[in-house]
Amino acid sequence: MFLKVAVKSLLSRKGSAVMTLMAISVAIFVLLGIEQIRQQARDSFASTVSGVDLIVGAKTGSLNLLLYSVFRIGSPTDNISWQAYREIADSDDVAWAIPISLGDSHEGYRVVGTTQAFFEHFSFGKKRRLTFSKGEAFEGTFDAVLGSEVALALGYSVGTEIILAHGLASTSFTKHDNQPFVVVGVLAPTGTPVDQTIHVRLEGIEAMHAGGSAAPIGAFTHASAPTADFSEPESITAFMLGLKSRMSTFNVQRQINQFSGEPLMAILPGVALSELWQMMSMFENVLRLISALVLLAAVLGMGAVLLASIRERRQEIHLLRMMGASPFYLFCLVEMEAMILCLLGMLLGGVSLYAALFMIGDAVFSRFGLYLDATLLTPEAALMLGAVLLATLAAAAAPSLKMYTSARDIS
């Protein structure tokens, strides 16, 4: 009976009730949406590189090693000798290794020298492997594979010839125009730094830096270039390791950090990524503040609407008092109306967000690399919704007290 009276009271003022409901649903949509994006951004950031147990580079800070090896930001303090790389990669605990050589660029985009192991073992997100939207992985010495953003921004496709330059600036006066590379593949979007990278063979980097005057280099062709002459570079920038057993991770890390041949450093990418995210926690707090202000505005607006309606409901209050309703009953009636609007707003906002995540999830992943799972009933979301209910009761307290005092005056 009590719920029925509250519903009929809202229906009698359906115009203001609908507008209030829409405001609350939009606030819930923003609140849960921002929390979802925040959570998924953190998870996606932490899985920029997935399935890699250790990243090895020259002695430096862990964040610096992470930045230049994964995000292509900054520069290494030193290189790693090829001999040290082979010694570690050939150890019994290592399942696979991906060497990385940095230092060149094309039109401001980083060039990474690597091997076929990069396309076979590198993964991102929830262990998603790299796939090709066009072409295939490199085979010849002077083949190149583009990230999706590079191909889109520069308008390149399979068969395009590109000239690499020394250094990382967008404009370089030291171009290796003695030997152009040919694009043989374009990677599908990943939402990671891979999209902004040009990948070539280590042999191609060595041959390009040899100057192009040596006889073996002049004999190379893009279709079938020999690799024996440049199969062992003098040094590389870093390398990624996949271990046969996760149990041996810390043991292998300690051995690398104590490597006697040269000063090396091994980091766990997941730990380093978490540390880097902690440095950007301010952005999380800003997102939370924005959603809280949106919700506060909606709840206060609902309280204002209910408060303004009290003057128009004197006839309703008088009728209910004549039917035996107590002032406390009318106080609870207003609170119930606020709770109905809040619950309906939660339902409408949640359903709208679920539908939006379902429709745009793939597009957001392709563009930004965010895995927007349509899972809204998380512990964090439940706590937020509980806080919304409490805020609604608090905001409805003023109009409820006004209703209470008006009822007492009528009596």
**Order of SSEs, N→C?**
HHEHEHEEHEEEEHEEEEHHEEHEHHHHHH
- Kindly give the count of domains: 2
Shape label: elongated
Report how far the terminal alpha carbons are from each other. Answer: 22 Å
- Low-confidence parts, pLDDT < 50 over ≥5 residues? 212-229
Major sheet size, sense and barrel closure: 11 strands, mixed
Strand tally, please?
A: 15
Q: Count the helices. How many?
A: 15
Instruction: Report the oligomer.
Output: single chain
Which value, in Å, is the CA radius of gyration?
31 Å
What is shown here, in short?
This protein has 411 residues and is an alpha+beta fold. The protein has helices at residues 2-11, 14-46, 62-70, 82-89, 117-121, 148-154, 202-209, 215-218, 249-257, 269-279, 281-310, 314-322, 327-368, 379-395, 397-410, and strands spanning 54-58, 80-81, 94-106, 109-114, 123-124, 128-129, 132-135, 143-146, 161-162, 165-166, 181-187, 197-201, 235-236, 238-243, 264-267. Strands 1, 3, 4, 7, 8, 9, 10, 11, 12, 14 and 15 form an 11-stranded mixed beta sheet that branches. Strands 2-13 form a two-stranded antiparallel ribbon.
